[in-house]
From TrEMBL:
Organism: Lasiosphaeria ovina
Protein known as: Uncharacterized protein
Length: 279
């Protein structure tokens, strides 16, 4: 508490019961402070229901994933980028295989939030929860400068700029996805986070993929500006933004937003019955 003392002035008109001398007035701070543990739990709650749009500028491939899954990946990249021993394994675990990637990633943060992530440049041994808060702070600054797509151009920050010091210039980059990408532009507008990356690989993989005998149907072709979306993300956007359900696709089409109709000519979720031939 800050206390300010002042000398009472002698004036002609004094209030009743006035007493000359020193008087004290107290000033109380209205600034609120929150324990780090509370901030960490709030960060999890903020991300667990959000959807992230990723665009791989090398593969010309877009992904729609749970935001909290993206943050878990960023925490792991954070360690690998800053670790002293390049052979050291990452102490941050992966999420379990699940049809609900958001729930699986949330479990990792709730169970392992106090995990110490040691052996990084700059000293110190931050916990997983502290790394998440650092990334949240970096991400929030870029989300505030966000721009919606214009025509076939998507705007967003580079994923690695959230971990490393960004280069000179604007924190937002842009990429022209040509006419092929216009089909999923509305999903970019409705995503909570938009991020560019390079050489990401598969952000989503079929759960039943058999190692050693890959099927060509499991491979998403590059250089075609396709969007690969997690079912949970599609349902989240459709229900919260448009009050629709992707179950309507079973009847052939689904309306979302103004002048947007999602049509499906065939059912794409049946298991394929062939494998990639090998010589």
């Amino acid at each position: 508490m800050l206390v300010c003392y002042y000398k009472a002035r002698e004036i002609a008109l004094r209030p009743e019961n006035y007493k000359a001398g020193w008087h004290a007035t107290g000033f109380y701070s209205t600034k609120q402070s929150f324990p780090r543990a509370q901030q960490y739990q709030q960060a999890i709650l903020d991300f667990v229901d959000q959807v992230a749009f990723l665009y791989d500028v090398e593969a010309k491939l877009a992904w729609l994933v749970p935001s909290i899954s993206l943050l878990l990946h960023l925490c792991q990249v954070y360690f690998h980028t800053k670790k002293l021993d390049q052979a050291a394994p990452c102490p941050i675990p992966f999420a379990k295989v699940s049809a609900n990637g958001s729930k699986a990633a949330e479990e990792v943060f709730r169970v392992h939030g106090e995990t110490v992530v040691a052996g990084m440049k700059g000293g110190g041994e931050p916990r997983l929860g502290e790394i998440l808060l650092r990334l949240q702070w970096s991400l929030d600054g870029r989300v505030q400068k966000r721009q919606n797509p214009k025509g076939s151009t998507v705007f967003g920050p580079e994923m690695m700029d959230m971990i490393q010091r960004p280069g000179a210039g604007s924190c937002l980059k842009f990429e022209d996805v040509t006419d092929e990408g216009k089909a999923w532009m509305r999903f970019v507008q409705e995503a909570d986070i938009v991020v560019f990356c390079r050489g990401l690989g598969n952000a989503i993989e079929p759960q039943d993929m058999k190692s050693g005998s890959p099927c060509s149907c499991h491979q998403v072709p590059n250089d075609r500006h396709l969007l690969v979306a997690h079912n949970w993300c599609l349902e989240k956007i459709m229900t919260t933004r448009f009050g629709k359900s992707i179950k309507n696709l079973q009847r052939g089409s689904c309306v979302f937003g103004d002048n947007y109709v999602w049509k499906m000519d065939n059912w794409p979720f049946n298991m394929c019955d062939h494998t990639l031939s090998t010589s």
